[in-house]
Fold:
Amino acid sequence: MNKVAVIILNWNGEKLLREYLPSVIETTDTSIADIIVADNGSTDSSIELLRDKFPQVTLLKFSENYGFAEGYNRAIKETNYPYTILLNSDVATTPGWVNHLYEYMETHPEVGACQPKIRAYTNMSHFEYAGAAGGFIDRNGYPYCRGRIFDSVEEDNGQYDSVMPIFWATGAALMVRSELYLKVGGLDKDFFAHMEEIDLCWRILLEGYDIVAVPQSMVFHLGGGSLPASNPRKTYLNFRNNLLMLHKNLPDSTRGKTLFVRRLLDTIAWAKFMATFDFKNANAILKAHRDFKKMRKAYTSHPNIDLLRTRKDCQRNILIDYYLRSKRTWDKLS
Structure:
């Protein structure tokens, strides 16, 4: 058996499998990695397609749709590989993509997870929004990327081709030590979608491991297929899950202060939506805070370390840098 499982989670994604799976098969070194499609109880023709067109792919069938987080959790429990790559079904890969990630992990035992460089499938010269060349988080819990800050996405001219320690790796193409993934609890199924990989990476960091971006490996991600940026459902999930992530991963000594600041900042965001008569997104923020108050009761265990205050890469205020200082690219931040 190989050391790497490339697991693609599928639910009624026949069209995506037809378009993207051939590149994964063509560019994945089969002496290192096995390709597995974990099917979340699809009712379309995904299973027939895999059996007829892609017999070299291992099929792991679930009887129902467990969602993104729980689907991956079950798939990794049922497979037995030292390394797992969580690969979205809308990702096209390039030659050597697994090799670069695998070789880095093998030679750096202190690294718990890593990601390739992510470019946009629809604009291949530019980074992709959800991951780019590695993810970070500021002192107030706002995520951003090397290559993408808020809505400013950079063209990839090789400016971020160095391997770099990061705070979080994108869930679109995330390589992780399988035993470590299970030890920290995997993806949090209560998040449903958005920021679940940041929460996972935070817990990996708390275990004392590093997370890195390995841009010698490159993939292309379609992205944005589930919810558009302006969708109130996406606004709700982003605000609620960010609050949950802070509540879970901050110690008692600083959690209250950080969440208080976030509530103030979220109030400003709510007021902005109200001023532009975007009442649906404004209400989404209110609902996010109401549901957070209910859901936080389930998280009773908290760490003793505040990574937002101990890590140098978490010290900046990205809102001030971006909106007041007009620092729209990573190189200007640095």
Notes: The domain at 4-221 is CATH 3.90.550.10 (Spore Coat Polysaccharide Biosynthesis Protein SpsA; Chain A).
